[in-house]
Write a structure and sequence with these properties.
With 161 residues, this protein is α/β, with parallel strands linked by helices. Helices cover 44% and strands 18% of the residues. The chain has a 4-stranded mixed sheet with strand order 1-2-4-3.
C-alpha cells in the first residue's frame, strides 16, 4: 500500500513518539480492508482539546471538544471505493482522501476510561476517521452506524489491538 500522510501538530512539542507509525499503520489497515489499492494521501493534524473544540465549533457548529474530526475530500459510497471519483494530485497520482484532526488529550482520556492503551485508542480513532474519509457515517443509530462499527471491529482485530 502506498500511503503518504502529512502529519502536522497544532503546537510545537505536541505529540507522541510513535504517532506517525501508529497512524500510518491504522490508515493502511483500513484502506486494505476497504479494498483501496490506489496510492493515497491523508492530512493528519494532532491537536489538543482546545484546538479540536475550535475546529468542531467552526466547521460543525458544535461548541465542545471531540476526539476526532474527519473532512472527506470526496463523496464516496461506503465499501465501494473508486479512485476515478476522487481528487487526485496530478504530479504524484495520489488520491487525496481528506483531512483528519485528532485530540491527543481526548485520546489519552478515552484510553484510560475504556481501560486500554493510548496506542490502541489512537489507532481506533484513526481507523474511525479513515472510514469517514471513505464515505462511512454514523449520524443516526441505524444500519449505517452498525455497518461502520462492524468495519471498525474487523480492522481493529486485524491490527491485533
Amino acid at each position: 500500500m502506498d500511503v503518504k500522510i502529512m502529519l502536522g501538530r497544532a503546537r510545537p512539542g505536541l505529540g507522541h513518539n510513535e504517532a506517525r507509525r501508529l497512524i500510518l499503520r491504522a490508515i493502511n489497515a483500513a484502506l486494505r480492508a476497504e479494498g483501496v489499492d490506489a496510492p493515497c494521501e491523508v492530512s493528519v493534524l494532532l491537536t489538543d482539546n482546545e484546538g479540536i473544540h475550535e475546529l468542531n465549533r467552526d466547521y460543525r457548529g458544535v461548541d465542545r471538544p471531540t476526539d476526532v474530526l474527519s473532512f472527506p475530500a470526496n463523496e464516496l459510497t461506503p465499501g465501494q471505493f473508486d479512485a476515478a471519483l476522487c481528487e487526485t494530485d496530478p504530479e504524484t497520482g495520489r488520491v487525496f482522501l481528506g483531512d483528519m484532526a485528532i485530540s491527543l488529550e481526548k485520546c489519552e482520556a478515552q484510553a484510560a476510561e475504556y481501560g486500554h492503551s493510548f496506542e490502541r485508542e489512537l489507532m481506533y480513532l484513526t481507523v474511525h476517521s479513515t472510514l469517514h474519509l471513505l464515505g462511512y457515517d454514523h449520524v443516526d443509530e441505524g444500519e449505517m452506524k452498525r455497518q461502520m462499527r462492524g468495519r471498525e471491529d474487523l480492522i481493529m482485530a486485524g491490527l491485533g489491538v
